[in-house]
Prior knowledge:
The protein is α/β, with parallel strands linked by helices. It has 14 helices and eleven strands.
Amino acid sequence: MKILVIRFSSMGDIIYTTPVVRCLKKQLPNAEIHFLTKPAFQYIYNNNPYLDKLLLLKDTLSETIREIKAEKYDHIIDLHNNLRTTIIKLRTGIPASTYKKQRLRKWLSLKFKLKLVPPTHLVDRYLETVKFLGVMNDGEPINYYINGQYNLSDLLPASHQNGFVAFIIGATHFTKRMPNHKIINICRQINQPIILLGGNDVAANGDEISAAISDRIINLCGKTTLDQSVFLVSQAKSIIGFDTGLTHIAEAFNKPIASVWGGTTPELLGVQPYRVDKTLVAGIELPCRPCSKFGLPKCPLGHFKCMNDMPETLIADFANNI
Length: 322
């Protein structure tokens, strides 16, 4: 049996497809499993032992469809369910099983602040698409395989090599990030060395946070590759992070995670920490929350209470008590 699994984006959503690929490969004897995604996200499946071939979206959809036809798949598992995947399924004529996005329920939940989406994790929703093949959830965590070989001594000073808290301060949208003054207050209460992780877009934030405290904090935002950042979270005593890809990747290593949510909510997206033994999901109940599914450039009401009123001691105590 030859199966193509499709998910084009984004980082967190693709991370949660890895149990599907693993379960297909392990539970279907002699099955050949391929995965199609955007070139920007190919690193997620690099070195994945459960994947036989990685296909990358071409410049034109027609080129991608020609490649899919040439592979002669028995089934398509569509975990994206958008216009492009619909066209792929129609033009290839390959039998397909499609992830149900529950668009109407999500829209109503967001618009009218109703809880119409069952609290089912995205991984379990994805796995519904392969039940027709007799494939079941194996109860294991997500998979991520670090590409490089790294040593802590090459990335961190001696003060941080015997244990540290990784604080992931980046996120794509403003309403997912905590203001600097809140991060500073939390870090001041943590009694362990701390590293700050994120991209170039939060490098200046990291400088402000680290300057406000002491050399107990090291700002690595924009200074490490994604692969190095993943290695560092895999070595951390605990992780604090927002609704962003690196926080979700960290779940692969079963480290204690404080998952902090602002304008978005894990219930709506189904992406609370998956198969992690020790977790804190921090978020404030507000009539205006969630304000969006994926984040916004600013608080629609201007007060940003979901992050400004977040209990700081709760998060710091989680890190201190590990």
